[in-house]
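Before the break, one more example. Copy the sequence into your notebook; we will annotate it together after we see the structure.
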Amino acid sequence: MFYHMWHRLHQSMDVEEKRVLSGYAKPPWIFKGSALYQIHLVKAATARAFIPKEFRLVEAFGYTLGGFFLASYDDSPAGVFDELVVIAGIVWNPPTSCAWAARVLVNSDEACHHGRKEVGLPSQVARFSKNITAVPKRKRDRAFGFLDTFGLGTTMSHPHDLMEVKVSEVDGADSEDICNIQIRSDETKVGNWMGPAIKMALPSFSGNTKYNSNLLKYSCHLHCRVRPVRPAVVSGALEDGTEIFSEQNPTSQESLENERRLCVAVMLSKPIIALQFKCLTMQVEAPVVKSKNIQLPSYKEEDDRPRTP
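Here is what the structure looks like once it is written out:
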């Protein structure tokens, strides 16, 4: 009898340890690190491919506001990982408007699984390759000295670092390049100024996926230092001239390729502002179900966890 009691106690301790080690035991979930939040003008036709029919896209003159959120977390429920959130656009659901994520790429199996199951995000495992190059100082051209005072000159007068982030989506043993993001550091122009400390909320809708068919609403509360920066330069697969499939009934592989190409189209759209978040603390609240009346194709549940090669 003593053995059985000890065994059951040991089992319960194992379960509790696994629950704690998973990191995502109870909301809210806290993430700390830094991020680049870049807002783009995205073609409404591109954004609508991702937006559920239950929502109305907020648009004007054929465009909506989308972009991306590129974050590097050094402390989170899933440990250290990188994340790229491709934001298709803004949807209207009175009395608020919220962002809709077209794709969430993370280099963490645990973060991907949690995003899919608990938050209803279109999460995929990805590989983030980073390379930092020091760009030497170049002599200022006198002819552009006056214009450069207002940031309009064509030459650079300060040294900076160029960080290139290559993001590739991982699918089993295969991988597909999504985009390259080039971020230039201009800290020498403003010294060590990191911008004012702010608090802000980013409400978002999610769900309508094969892993979570409900429509959900969740909120991210951010505490950080924020400052405007030069927009990152994005390049991607669509620049090689490949076209999006237009068949009426595409195969599952063609649908996947469509989604990837449309995500790249969002990334390649016109940037209008870029904000750097430093000393970032992001608190993600538990999602609230907005609607359960969505019918999606059945899928195999036995092994839906992403796998990193």
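The CA atoms of residues 111 and 303 lie 16 Å apart. The chain has six helices and 13 strands. Try to locate both features in your own notes.
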